[in-house]
Amino acid sequence: MREILAELVECWSAGEPVALGTVVATFGSAPRQPGASMLVRRSGAVTGSVSGGCVEGAVYERADEVLRGAAPALERYGFSDEDAFAVGLTCGGILDIYVQRISRESFPELAEVAADVAAGRPVAVATVVEHPDPAVLGRHLVVRPRDTSARVVGALGSLRLAEAIATDAQGLLATGQSGTLTYGADGERLGKGARVFVWAAAPPPRMLVFGAIDYASAVAQMGSFLGYDVTVCDARPVFATASRFPAADRVVVSWPHKFLAEEVEAGRVDESTVICVLTHDPKFDGPLLELALRLPSVGYIGAMGSRKTHADRTQRLRAAGLTQAELDRMSSPIGLDLAARTPEETAVSIAAEILARRGGATGLPLRELHSPIHAERPRSIPEESIA
């Protein structure tokens, strides 16, 4: 929903009701993930996408009906052998899409949610998308982390349901995952009849790029494009300047290992953090990698250099006491084999390896594989069709 949030808030602030279609669950090779949204205004203008084009027309029609007063609707769109090119997904996947009307009256907390997202504060919005009581449909619960004073706001008509959703939504928020939860009508955890979609807006993952070189500028730009919060760090102030790295969110002048230690101490390095070591200098990358490879949880650690550089670096790290298991966490030479030479090509190679590592993928050409293109992820949603 991030891609349409600014326009959604603009309409909300102006008192203009809009219709919002949101992917709340997927099955098979679905083109978009839960949280992807499409906004439809009274003028007919559309922002965002829920399927990359497959079912946008049908969702648009339902959104127009909701804008004109129809009840919110949870629709399932999937592959049809009889008419695969009508309303369905030619990729063979299934999407559950919830279409609702958003206004200042129906969602009074929206401005505060948008402020949290803009400031990088974790916040989740739980929306009832299926319930035996039509009056409960579309109600929202705004959930924040346990350590904030304004933890939960909103009302769902059932204290038990609200408490169950708040607890589970905080769990999703902690991992930055959005998904659909299933309960009984009064919040029974093993029951059925109520489905709640939780959109979790956690701060973006971080990319730490060490070494203020031309390759770092391209990697920072690629990281920003992929949605990372990018920091470039180098101990040399003449090179580590904001003007040389316009795509970075911040440029830090510090010894790399000292900066990383400070970030770890502050709790700003976790399993989603990506570390790219592009320094090429043992006095910088040695202490940095000694620290990075011993961290309990980091998403990716890559180090640039030739195979000779890698062999020398590995020998020094082993002499410093690192185990083979710790050394195996390092992607070096960094990137996938794409015949990359320029900084931009190298950045694509590095990004491709990060994506493959993050998703547990092979990095092989899709035509050589026979598994689903979009791997299934566990979801707490029922498999039966929606009536």
UniProtKB/TrEMBL annotation:
Domain XdhC- CoxI, chain residue ranges per copy: 11-78, 118-184
InterPro entries (alphabetical): MoCofactor_Util/Proc, XdhC_CoxI, XdhC_Rossmann_dom
Region (Disordered), start-end ranges: 367-387
A Pfam family: XdhC_C
Domain XdhC Rossmann: 207-354
Designated name of the protein: XdhC/CoxI family protein
Organism field: Nocardioides immobilis
